[in-house]
Design brief:
Elements: E1 20-23, H1 55-73, H2 78-93, E2 96-97, H3 98-103, H4 109-128, E3 139-141, E4 148-154, E5 164-166, E6 170-172, E7 175-177, H5 180-192, E8 196-202, E9 215-216, H6 217-220, H7 224-239, H8 246-267, H9 272-303, H10 309-334, H11 342-345, H12 351-361, H13 364-373, H14 378-389, H15 393-400, H16 404-407
Parallel strand pairs: 3-9
Antiparallel strand pairs: 1-8, 2-3, 4-7, 4-8, 5-6
Helix pairs in contact: 1-2, 4-7, 7-8, 8-9, 8-12, 9-10, 13-14
Length: 413
């Protein structure tokens, strides 16, 4: 608000909170999932004929009805679905059409520029990446921080994350909350049961096309490349999503994100410096991925060794200490002092942290090979990716995890 009480729409400067990690070394529990069921199709509008429901009101009604079905159909408690319903409906109720915000004389020039850039990115996504956005990201919401907080949990001596099963989304290796306090409460409960736990803040999320997802002010505060990448990533989830396969879904969307941003930069004139900075950051991601993969291999070997629990716990601690030392060396010698992943490394490193990161970074080479096979045609690429998604779970994982040298040349990566 201004001094005279009028409202000025501008981007908040409040940074998102860093990841929070909870862990207590108590023996871990089962990784069992529970059965999810098919959700009925969209409710008919016929019985609403003559009512005063708007299209948005109908979507709200449909979501509330869906949540009531979900509460009966999967293993999470009704209170979990209630917080999801409240959080989502609260977010949707605050939406404003982007055109309305742009036409508002109280909207800051900075916010207008970011909204206009978002529209250009969405047009590019549809034209060049075969990612139709429909009505998603055509509205705007100001929230001032992360939109959700995702809890990832893994046993004390395993890198296999716990999975939770939900109708529609299927089984996923995280559990999302709209309020940080709720996520922390659940994470602390899991930690007391012996799980390694981490909490990951998210600046955007996708309802997989069920609803028209809004643009959030937290996302608009990011760099041009991060804004474009996040939109490409979330639209990819709408284009292709495999129930019960977090690894495939995130690998696919992350590859579309990275490849899309590169093509987007190449289409713009005068952005050579930005492209170079983005490529340096992309190389840093690859370096970091290699670093974490090495730590994962050491931990997997340890956990399969059959050593006594106390000895295994001590060796685990040393592996994570070595990971920090190697990261410091990488920052100082490989990245010339640029600390790209400082907030991630600031957390209490554990199995859950590694599990959450790996879901987004695996499968890069497998998808690069698919795109190369199609002559860089994204429409055909999505079709090929959908075919791979149709493999049974074991074959799909084998395909994703093939070594890069087997499936793609360096020029494709």
């Amino acid at each position: 608000m201004t001094g005279d009480g009028s409202k000025v729409l501008r981007l908040s400067s409040t940074p998102p909170a860093p990841p929070v990690t909870h862990r207590e070394p108590i023996p871990g529990g089962s990784n069992a999932t529970c059965l999810s069921r098919t959700v009925p199709g969209p409710t008919s509008r016929a019985f609403l004929a003559g009512s005063r429901f708007t299209n948005q009101g109908f979507r709200f009604f449909r979501f509330a009805l869906l949540i009531s079905v979900l509460a009966l159909a999967a293993c999470a408690s009704p209170s979990y679905y209630w917080q999801a319903s409240k959080g989502h409906l609260g977010l949707m109720s605050e939406r404003r059409e982007v055109g309305e915000v742009l036409a508002d004389p109280e909207t800051s020039g900075e916010l207008k520029a970011r909204l206009e850039l978002s529209a250009e990115i969405l047009e590019f996504a549809e034209r060049e990446l075969s990612l139709p956005s429909g009505d998603s990201y055509r509205t705007f919401v100001e929230i001032g921080g992360p939109v959700t907080w995702n809890v990832v949990a893994a046993p004390e001596f395993s890198l296999q994350p716990k999975r939770w099963c939900f109708p529609v989304a299927g089984c996923v290796s995280y559990r999302g909350y709209f309020h940080r306090e709720d996520a922390e409460t659940f994470a602390a409960r899991m930690s007391r049961k012996g799980w390694d736990v981490t909490i990951i803040p998210a600046l955007a999320y996708s309802t997989l096309g069920w609803f028209d997802d809004p643009l959030l002010d937290t996302l608009l505060r990011k760099s041009d490349a991060q804004l474009a990448g996040t939109l490409f990533h979330e639209l990819a989830h709408q284009r292709l999503y495999v129930r019960d396969s977090t690894h495939f879904n995130e690998a696919y969307a992350s590859f579309v994100e990275t490849s899309g941003v590169k093509r987007w930069f190449q289409s713009r004139q005068g952005d050579a410096d930005d492209l170079e900075r983005w490529e340096r950051g992309r190389q840093a991601v690859a370096d970091f991925d290699d670093l974490l993969r090495s730590a994962r291999l050491e931990l997997q070997t340890l956990y399969a060794s059959g050593l006594p629990a106390l000895e295994m716990k001590d060796t685990k601690r040393k592996i994570f200490e070595t990971l920090r030392d190697r990261y410091d060396d990488l920052v100082n010698s490989g990245w010339q002092g640029q600390d790209y992943f400082s907030s991630w490394m600031a957390q209490d490193l554990n199995n859950a942290a590694l599990a959450g990161f790996s879901a987004y970074t695996g499968g890069r080479c497998a998808f690069a090979a698919l795109l190369a096979e199609t002559g860089q045609d994204f429409a055909r690429f999505h079709e090929r990716a959908a075919a791979q998604a149709g493999l049974d779970a074991a074959d799909r994982e084998r395909w994703l995890n093939q070594p890069c040298a087997v499936i793609a040349s360096p020029a494709d990566l």
